[in-house]
C-alpha cells in the first residue's frame, strides 16, 4: 500500500507555487506520489471566472510531466455536477493507498461548508499547509471548532504519529504567487515569466486564455 496525497483545486492556472508545495510534501510526508485533481466545477467558485475544465486539466498535465512523484487525474472531469472532494476520495480509496488530502489553512477553516466533511476525514488524513506568513493558529477558536466538528482531536506535525483522529500541519516553503494575480497579469498584458512552467506559459498564449478579448 502506497502513500498518496490528493491535491485538488481549480488550477486556474497552475503555477510554480503549487508545484513547489507539492514537491516539498513528497519529502516532508514521505509520500509515494502526489495526485493533482483539477476540479471540473468547483462548488465555491463562479464558473465565469474559470477557464474550461479541459484547458485547466491540460495545463496541469503539462506542468507535472516528467516529475516522477507527480500525477494528474481527470476523475472530476468525467463526473457530472459540482466537483465534491468527498466523491473523489471515495473513488480513489479503491486503490488501497493511504490517502492524504492537502489543503490550505483558509480552506481548512472553511471545511464545514464542504459536503460531508466528516466523511472526508474518514477517507484521508487531512494535511493543512499554511501560507508563509499566515496567521493560522491551531489553538484559535476557529481552528478548534473545525477540529471538533470533523471528529478529530488534535493537530500534529509531519514527524508525529498520524492517526484518524489527527490533522497534520506542515509549514512548507511557498512562493508569493496566486492564480488570480496571474489572470490579472494576462488581462493587463504583463509577464508570467518565472511564475508558471514554460509549457504552461506557451499553452496560455497559444489558446489565448484569460485575455479580455478571448
Count of DSSP E strands? 7
Structural class: alpha/beta
Coarse morphology: globular
Which ranges are low-confidence, i.e. pLDDT below 50, for 5 or more consecutive residues?
Answer: none
Beta-strand percentage range: 15-25%
User: What is the CA-based Rg, rounded?
Assistant: 17 Å
How many helices? The count is 8
Topology (SSEs and partners):
Blueprint: E1 3-9, H1 16-28, E2 33-38, H2 53-64, E3 70-72, H3 85-92, E4 98-104, H4 105-109, H5 117-123, E5 125-129, H6 141-149, E6 154-156, E7 166-169, H7 179-187, H8 198-206
Parallel strand pairs: 1-2, 1-4, 2-3, 4-5, 5-7, 6-7
Helix pairs in contact: 2-8, 3-5
What does this structure look like?
The chain is α/β, with parallel strands linked by helices and 214 residues long. It has a single domain, classed as 3-Layer(aba) Sandwich (Rossmann fold), CATH 3.40.50. The protein has 8 helices and 7 strands. It has helices at residues 16-28, 53-64, 85-92, 105-109, 117-123, 141-149, 179-187, 198-206; strands at residues 3-9, 33-38, 70-72, 98-104, 125-129, 154-156, 166-169. The protein has a 7-stranded parallel sheet with strand order 3-2-1-4-5-7-6, sandwiched between helices. Helix 2 packs antiparallel against helix 8 (198-206) and helix 3 (85-92) runs parallel beside helix 5 (117-123). The mean pLDDT is 94.
Amino acid at each position: 500500500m502506497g502513500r498518496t496525497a490528493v491535491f485538488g483545486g481549480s488550477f486556474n492556472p497552475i503555477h510554480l507555487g503549487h508545484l513547489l508545495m507539492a514537491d516539498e510534501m513528497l519529502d516532508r510526508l514521505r509520500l509515494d506520489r502526489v495526485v493533482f485533481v483539477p476540479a471540473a466545477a468547483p462548488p465555491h467558485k463562479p464558473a465565469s471566472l474559470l477557464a474550461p475544465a479541459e484547458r485547466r486539466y491540460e495545463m496541469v498535465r503539462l506542468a507535472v510531466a516528467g516529475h516522477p512523484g507527480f500525477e494528474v487525474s481527470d476523475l472530476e472531469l468525467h463526473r457530472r455536477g459540482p466537483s465534491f472532494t468527498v466523491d473523489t476520495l471515495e473513488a480513489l480509496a479503491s486503490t488501497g493507498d493511504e490517502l492524504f488530502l492537502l489543503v490550505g489553512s483558509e480552506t481548512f477553516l472553511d471545511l464545514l461548508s464542504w459536503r460531508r466533511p466528516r466523511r472526508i476525514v474518514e477517507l484521508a488524513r487531512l494535511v493543512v499547509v499554511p501560507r508563509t506568513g499566515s496567521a493560522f493558529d491551531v489553538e484559535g477558536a476557529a481552528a478548534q471548532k473545525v477540529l471538533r466538528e470533523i471528529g478529530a482531536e488534535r493537530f500534529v506535525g509531519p514527524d508525529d504519529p498520524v492517526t484518524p483522529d489527527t490533522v497534520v500541519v506542515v509549514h512548507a516553503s511557498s512562493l508569493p504567487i496566486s492564480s488570480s494575480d496571474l489572470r490579472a497579469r494576462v488581462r493587463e498584458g504583463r509577464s508570467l515569466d518565472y511564475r508558471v512552467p514554460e509549457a504552461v506559459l506557451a499553452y496560455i498564449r497559444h489558446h489565448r486564455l484569460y485575455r479580455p478579448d478571448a
